[in-house]
Amino acid sequence: MILGLDPLFTDGVDIGDVGWVLVKVIVIFVFLMVAVMLNIWFLRKVIADFQNRIGPSVAGKWGILQSLADGIKLFMKEDLVPEKADRFVFKLAPYLSLVPAFLVFAIVPLGGDFNKSRELADGTVETGALEWGDNITYLQLADPPVGILFFLAMSSLAIYGIMLAGWGSGSKYPLLGSVRASAQMVSYEAALGLAIAAVVLISGSLSTHDIVAQQAAEGWFGIVPRWNLIVTAFVPFIIFLIAGTAELNHPPFDLVEAEQELVGGFHTEYSSIRFALFFLAEFMNQITMSAIAVTLFLGGPAGPVLFGPAWIWGIIWFFAKTMFFLWGLVWVRATLPRFRYDQLMDLGWKVLIPLALAWFLLLAGIQVGQDRGWDGQDEIIFIAVFAGACLLMGSLLMAAIKTARQERLEREGVDQHG
Amino acid sequence: MTAERVLRRGHDSAVLRLSEAEAAEIGNDPDTPVDDERVLLNMGPSHPSTHGVLRLMLEMEGETVLRSKPVVGYLHTGMEKQAEQLTYLQGPTNVTRMDYAAPLFSELAFSLATEKLLEIEVPERATWIRMLMCELNRMSSHLLFMATNGMDLGAVGMMIYGWREREEVLRFFEMVTGLRMNHNYIRPGGVAADLPDGWEDEVIRLLDITAPRLDEYDVLMTGQPIWRERLQGVGVLNSDEALALSATGPLLRSTGYAWDLRRHEAYLAYDEIDFDVIVGTYGDCYDRYAIRLNEIRESMKIVRQIIDKMPAGDYRVQDKKVTPPPRVRIDESMEALIHHFKIFTEGYKVPVGEAYASVESPRGELGVYIVSDGTSTPYRMHVRGPSFINLQTMPHLMKDGLIADGVAIISSVDPIMGEVDR
User: Fold this and answer.
1) B46-49 long-range CB contacts below 8 Å, 24 or more apart?
2) Separation in Å, CA A181 to CA A258, A267, B72
């Protein structure tokens, strides 16, 4: 059952449940479209603030309809297919990029009251569902058992859109962009996956709803929330942020587009609505990536109820946290210079992946220790072994890097710059 | 040893020696690479980071640039030839359009060459006004570099910050000359107009605004790890190579070779002013960035000294041959009207001879060579444009770098295409 663990389906699927799912699909679709529109406007307004400008101000109040106007303009533009392009691939690519961006949002828990739990008809206990008459359902489109793996699958699929766009354009700049894209996204996917694996390890579940429900539990001292951010001790979170930004092709990792080098990268040859689709996908991915980060590390919609109806606070917390990430993305975009291709690879393979792997092993060790009831002595032995192993692997890695550099220098000739 | 490296020809040379026809034959179709591994990539003339209309033919292996060839001429306007039709009075209007980021330097070089031919001495105040304006112009030009360099490396915010500070300088230029660029302010015999009342306050305000903002640049870029990674060790040149390629300006100074015409062939009144010549060590893009940033600070130091030392007196030479009469005299005197008319239509005659005058423009040695045949227009004018000559270092800087380094290198050589093509 793809829609998964939602309590809506505990008593079988009837026509009413299908109706519910359809309503959710429509709400999420409309929400995403509007959110992307507002996200573009938000980006332009905030970045204008960073740069002492006013930003969009003509279309609608505070220029809020700017993206709508841009979208309409792009629809009206001539749709060009370059002569040398592979026509089928060229036309297919934007959709390959857009569809995964939409789909990922299906597994994000958008709201719900995670502070109280109830027993369902079949005896299981759940939290965070919404009650509407007889129907009990989660505020998320789907909660498949594969959960977060679905996100990884979709973000891998999105690479194809970019790769094929560059390849299908039949032009050199897009080709360079797509070669960069495939290398970049494939290598950062590994770090991203390892960071997520740490969360999955702690939660013991792949389901996004379960991951959130776990984080909603009572925290330390009553005020520090039990977010995975803290439970996994920040490192996977930071790795996720960096790898996620790279996965989005967002500055400082926007080598795929790299306006100053590759003109427009993979979308150089695109115009009109096809370009708009890429644009839409890019900004939608920002929203989904932020939402996933919130779900995995910041407790998703979990948070205290201050006043009024409880369910509304889940949504408010979710949006507040997501906005925080979106703002952070704009901040990074406005400030940082772009990485170079080889530096990007260095960061991914030589820093992020080993670090994520080591941290994952550490968390796994602690988890095993807790399960088996290790005492102080066992823990000391574990930490010593872990530190030793890390040191060994680290020095091996260093030696490898050093040898590689040495060989390269020898190959190029050491007298290079006298 | 290294000077030979840059001059060598053949297949391992950095310069791509390929004619347009050959390039068109193998380069246009992405499916037919130069050989199995290499492709020919055409960067420009319209490309976001080629600073106008520079075109680069790059022979690439993957992302690595093997050989390259800068192609110029897309902005050719024939200014050197044009100068032969224009009188010496009209000359600055022409040359000011060459280096549009630092127009006052071209005017200055032209005026100095003409004054050498005329053998006139400009009043002291005119000299100091010229120095003030040129140093401010050096600031605005380097601020423009800060903006474009930041932009080329992807720090988009920096672009706006650089423009913002440059705008302050341009505001002062507008107040003095009436124009933001192409001023035609420095003319043979002095400057076009005296400084307006209250100019000191304006300049001090400008300097006070700029100083803390340069410190912000340090926070945003100088110490930024990605920034350093992107620039350090990229586009390395040493002194021998730089001299062999006759590079000047920040490009030469970045190699540690302290050559600055303000110091070594002191023109105007630079010998009365205390300033440092900024040099680098490694000759890489980072040094060139740091040199320009610190040259802004150095120019600010010079400007402050000029404010203190600005002498009173005439702002142009009182030689009736080259200086038109004051506007009020034209209403009173028939002779003044005729004199005015003659100067602006016929111009003044310049003695037979030839002269070369060079100044340290923000981009290097800017020289103007004028041959006079005794008429009121030059027989021949030649300009040594530093952008043009520095451009020939580019294939050597780019060799074996990545395409992203290439962008950083174009930016750090900082060519102004108006001056390259003239």
Assistant:
1) B47/A263, B48/A259, B48/A260, B48/A263, B49/A260, B49/A261, B49/B151, B49/B152, B49/B407, B49/B410, B49/B411
2) 11, 12, 32
Whole-Å CA distances, A80 to A85, A272, B140? 10, 8, 41
Q: Provide the residue ranges of all domains of chain B, joining segments of one domain with +.
A: 79-318+349-386
Comparing CB atoms, the residue among A51, A262, A341 nearest residue B160 is A51
Q: Which domain holds residue A402?
A: 374-418
Query: Are residues A230 and A277 part of one domain?
Result: yes
Same structural domain, A341 and A378: no
Phi first, then psi, for residue B366 (nearest 5°) are: -105, 115
Confidence of residue A183 (pLDDT cuts 50, 70, 90): confident
CATH number of B79-318+349-386: 1.10.645.10
pLDDT in tens, B224-276: 888 888 888 888 888 888 888 889 989 999 988 888 888 888 888 888 888 88
From start to end of B122-226, where are the E strands? 186-187, 190-191
Residues A386 and A302 in one domain: no
Lowest mean per-residue pLDDT among A98-102, A310-314, B404-408: A310-314
Handedness of CA B344, B348, B354, B355 (dihedral sign): negative
Mark whether A378 and A267 lie in a shared domain: no
Interface A:B, Cβ pairs < 8 A? 95
**pLDDT tens column, B312-368:** 888 888 887 888 888 888 888 888 888 888 888 888 888 999 999 999 999 989 999
CB nearest B236 (choices: A175, A335, A417): A417
On whether both A93 and A123 belong to a single domain, the answer is yes
Write down the mean pLDDT value for chain B.
86
Q: Is residue A23 part of a domain?
A: no
Q: How many structural domains does chain A have? A: 2
Amino acid at A278: F
Of A354, A371, A388, the residue at which a domain comes to its end is A371
In a domain, A40, yes or no: no
HEC readout, A159-211: HHHHHHHHHHCCCHHHHHHHHHHHHHHHHHHHHHHHHHHHHHHHHCCCCHHHH
Q: Do A313 and A203 share a domain, yes or no?
A: yes
Considering only CB atoms, B154 lies closest to which of A180, A260, A343, namely A260
Residue contact B152–A341, C-beta within 8 A: no
Question: Using the beta-carbon criterion (under 8 Å), do A340 and B402 form an inter-chain contact?
Answer: yes
Are residues A177 and A200 both part of a single domain?
Answer: yes
Same domain, A100 and A151: yes
List CB contacts (< 8 A) between B1 and chain A: 415, 418
